[in-house]
Amino acid sequence: MITKAMHDARLRSDQLYAASLGAIALCINLWLRAKTIDQEERGNAERRALFVGLWPPMFWLLGDALERRETRSAWRPRR
Question: Of 10, 31, 51, 73, which is most buried with the most CB atoms under 10 A?
Answer without folding.
Answer: 31
